[in-house]
């Protein structure tokens, strides 16, 4: 028997790994099952290219055995196995991934199922075990080997016997301590739950003996334990399943599993479209903005599958930019498998799916706004700004899609209102949709320019985002009502001149003096009927409002 130590870096890394990378000990099972699935996939790929190998699906599976009395969990597979060299290289060197190498050697590009790539997952076994034994017999090899390790100290390797090709990994589960319960990993239902949670879509059966209580024959009301082998994973991806069989929780689990976000999505949509182009999709509207959402680093897109095989991790063409926050998967049988990325971009089917998805998202958001106002406001707080950018970009090409989804703070309601709500309660004599731009709601509240409009009983929309006024300029009007800044020269409000006419000559000297003192800072100083409580206010002539001018001036050249 040979005894070898892990390389020095490996020791440190292993320590680090075991204690810090993973926060949930239970993922050890996900990692080991993924490795088994990869090992079976490798045989499958070999069979694809070699006529001498037949791949009979029934012969390929993962088996989980729990031996509670001896504190053992065994994960066995009928995969490709490892020879001595592979055991040393793949399990003896941390951060070495035999699976990544396999993908390279076999020129398997994106669109594969092999999961491994980082070469660390295996060591997560030590999160729950103080001893790990691997017995493996490689494909087309006569000898089997046993690899054993207690963690950082190193490993031993020796020849052993094993009948069939494949790998068996046995974990000796740690003893529970006062702070930490390890016994639970020896419970059938814990193991079962972990498999369900992380490995439900593994394409090969994950089998396990399950004990159930059944009525004992020939007795009345007596039960007995019956042990039966069960396949725990459903193997079928969630989007291929029937909506009626799925609970909110299933969708939320999938969202978390896929790392779409750390939040709980506000809404999910499950689509099974059976038209000209067939596709299944699950789309999510997140609740919170990802930390990098408003940066260049953020990559939008949906996962694209073709017949259950992943083609692209982030297919950005499936979403318009203004809905870039949407997460999810699309799976279509009508995309051919061998399409390259470039061809996909110009794929007619893809475009048609994208259009369909755009409309679905729009309708979903409209429904949310109509039926779940509170949730919509949560969503809007995270992504409202993004929608407004959407209105502004592409020269307003998307305004029809987006204008009904916008909200602004209202002087009257003291909360966010939609444009539709604003317009529908406009008094008959009100010509325009008034808005005031400023730094904060408080500041805008105090603007002298708002006095006259509020006095008339008209509602004012408060613009506190830089993009607001730009977006509204692109819209120009809503339901034929033009937008009007409160600092505009002409507010369209008829002042009652007969009672209190402005005498142009009164204070003429004062105005001249003011204009001269302010020189080119203002264009003119005039008497105004707009003011109620304030002595003076600023107003602008022409299209660019004072607030917009500030933003434009602050922009880098
Ligand atoms: P990764 O899966 O990211 O490559 P792991 O640490 O999980 O990293 O595994 C390291 C390597 O060990 C794998 O790439 C694979 O070559 C090999 N390996 C692990 N488990 C098995 C197994 N059950 N059958 C065959 N090879 C395995
Ligand atoms: Mg792995």
UniProtKB/TrEMBL annotation:
InterPro entries: HATPase_C_sf, Heat_shock_protein_90_CS, HSP90_C, Hsp90_fam, Hsp90_N, Ribosomal_Su5_D2-typ_SF. Residues 351-382 form a coiled coil. Residues 1-341 are annotated as: A. This is Chaperone protein HtpG. It is found in: Cytoplasm. PANTHER family: HEAT SHOCK PROTEIN 90 FAMILY MEMBER. The gene is htpG. CDD domains: HATPase_Hsp90-like. NCBIfam families: PRK05218.1. Homodimer. Molecular chaperone. Has ATPase activity. Belongs to the heat shock protein 90 family.
